[in-house]
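Bumping with the actual sequence this time:
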Amino acid sequence: MNIEIISGSPRAQSLTHRVAIFLHKILNEKTEHHIGLIDVRDNPLPPIQNVFVNADAAPAEHKELSTRMFAADAFILVTPEYNGSYSPALKNLLDHFPKQHHKVFGIATASPGAFGGIRATQQLQLLVNALFGIGLPYLLVVPLVDKKFDADGNLIDATFQNQIDTFVHEFIWLAEAVVKAK
């Protein structure tokens, strides 16, 4: 199974990216699946003009990204909260690949604030539905992210491990069940 974690913050010193790095590490340790990490900072897409319907239809500079998006069986979207929603860079990336039929989506949000981006989860759930994806009902909401993960994506607050374990376990269970059903 191919799982792509999409780190959706365009900020150079992204705190949210710490969560994406950690999830990449833990999923590689806990599964035999291929775990990729797509960073919106490494994949600058122009504002949506054309939808990529398959990897061959994508412009040359976006073929690798397109190949990975179409090959993915499941995604984990990791985003900060921007004015009560997810990052515009994440939305722009997903708008280039609008239909993700029968693919599982896990949602992780992070913020240095006390609410951890919870309002962004609500907006992302609506987006996953619009993409024809299957949304994991378990959310990973990371408040005070700078106190839970260091700059290298290491967990520094052991009390948060249970939330991570539940999210990862449920995501893998649902993704494997959906892939098997296909």
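The tokens above came from a reply further down the thread. The CA atoms of residues 19 and 59 lie 30 Å apart.
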